[in-house]
Each structure stands twice: as C-alpha cells, then as structure tokens.
Design a protein that fits this description.
Number of helices: 5
Helix content: 40-55%
Low-confidence stretches: none
Strand content: under 5%
Structural class: mainly alpha
Number of strands: 0
Largest sheet: none
Distance between the termini: 33 Å
Length: about 100
C-alpha cells in the first residue's frame, strides 16, 4: 500500500489506501470481502468513498503498469495473469498433489 498513485488518491479523499482499494472494486461492479480480526480495521473496512473518473482511470491503469497483485492467494496454482505472492509455495504444493 505504498504506491505513490494510490497514496495520492487516498490523501485527496482523506482516507487510507485500503479504503481506496476497497471502494474501487464496488464501483467496478465487483464484490469485496475484506478480512480482518482487528475491530478498528473491521469498522474501517465498511467505509466506502465515491471515486471520481480520474481516480478510476488511475486505478484502472495501475494493472497495465504491472502494479496489480492478487491479495488472496489460495495457492491453487491458477494462472490469473498476474504475479502471486507465493509462487514457489504454489508450485511445491501442486508438485505434492495439492491441498490435503
């Protein structure tokens, strides 16, 4: 969450980068299921903001710049077209027969 473009949008709206990202997906028509065990973060995760067209364009363009990463990595070995956080563990798991 240290990307300069993401932080600029967060600063512009006076919210955290996480709030920007959680707000971005519903505006694209996607469902977001944020997870946390911290009561403060659980409360923050329900806060949504309305991003303007410039914000949406910036966020949409981040994937084209190679800045997109999958946050939920179930290690199923599926290629979703962008880097996993744990590619080596996924390869090892698949080599050993997957989940057990």
């Amino acid at each position: 969450m240290s990307d300069p473009e993401l932080n600029a949008i967060a600063d512009k709206h006076g919210v955290s980068p996480a709030t920007v990202l959680i707000s971005y997906q519903p505006q694209r028509g996607c469902v977001v299921l944020p997870k946390s065990v911290s009561p403060t973060r659980i409360e923050a995760n329900v806060e949504l903001i309305t991003l303007d067209a410039d914000d949406m364009e910036t966020l949409d363009g981040m994937a084209a710049k190679g800045k997109q990463q999958r946050v939920n990595t179930p290690l199923f070995g599926w290629d979703l077209g962008f880097p996993d956080w744990y590619p080596e563990q996924a390869k090892a798991m698949l080599a050993n027969g997957g989940y057990r």
